[in-house]
Design a protein that fits this description.
Helix content: 55-70%
CATH architecture: Orthogonal Bundle
CATH class: Mainly Alpha
Protein name: Lipoprotein
Number of helices: 8
Number of strands: 5
Keywords: Signal
InterPro entries: Trigger_fact/SurA_dom_sf (IPR027304)
Largest sheet: 3 strands, antiparallel
Order of helices and strands: HEEHHHHHHEEEH
């Protein structure tokens, strides 16, 4: 998978934790960013579409992480009056975000993966411009993107993000799958499943 996608923080471990809906969400909602809702259905549709385009599994957590980041960037961009043109998005999507020309074509073929790619591109542009850059073709674009991430996190600190516990918890500008929603530790059921899996793996290694 593209290192550029990793740089945007959209690739996460596939740790599924149990739990109900966190305060601020309702059944069917994966996350709330301010007054904007991301539905579980949209997350599932996006993860399946992106996975199909990339030819590999793309977890729901990875999709949701990107979707929340994209929404935060969009809201901060509006607050800061940062303009992003369709031409800039198309350029960044093809030349800075898509893993390869072939992947770009496949991502463009499905409406769900195309929307996700375009929003990732818009997020990258907003991030660079927050740091005073002009776009992806800046000589110091990579440095501006890194500086922009800090600026984006600072600007988004007052935007409330609530994630349904089954996906994890939003913390420090990313989706943390090590904890479930507002819970400070994993549930007993999750702990039992993890322990059983670890013991089974150890037994297999011993037999080998």
């Amino acid at each position: 998978m593209s290192t550029r996608l990793r740089a945007l923080g959209v690739v996460l471990a596939t740790v599924l934790l149990t739990g109900g809906c966190a305060a601020g969400t309702h059944p069917g909602a994966a996350a709330m960013i301010g007054d904007t809702e991301i539905s579980i259905g949209d997350v599932d549709k996006t993860s399946r579409a992106v996975g199909a385009a990339l030819g590999e599994s793309y977890p729901d957590q990875a999709a949701l992480n990107g979707m929340v980041s994209n929404e935060l960037a969009a809201q901060v961009g509006r607050q800061k009056a940062i303009s992003v043109s369709d031409a800039e998005i198309a350029d960044a999507a093809k030349n800075a975000v898509a893993p390869s020309p072939e992947a770009y074509q496949k991502l463009q073929a499905d409406p769900a993966s195309r929307a996700f790619l375009d929003k990732l591109a818009a997020t990258l542009i907003v991030t660079i411009k927050l740091a005073g850059g002009k776009g992806i073709h800046d000589a110091d674009g990579q440095q501006k993107a890194q500086e922009g991430v800090q600026a984006l996190n600072a600007a988004a600190k007052d935007i409330k993000v609530t994630v349904a516990p089954r996906f994890g918890q939003w913390s420090d500008g990313r989706l943390d799958t090590a904890i479930s929603g507002s819970l400070s530790k994993e549930s007993d059921q999750t702990a039992a499943k993890r322990k059983a899996a670890e013991e089974a793996q150890q037994q297999q290694q011993g037999q080998g």
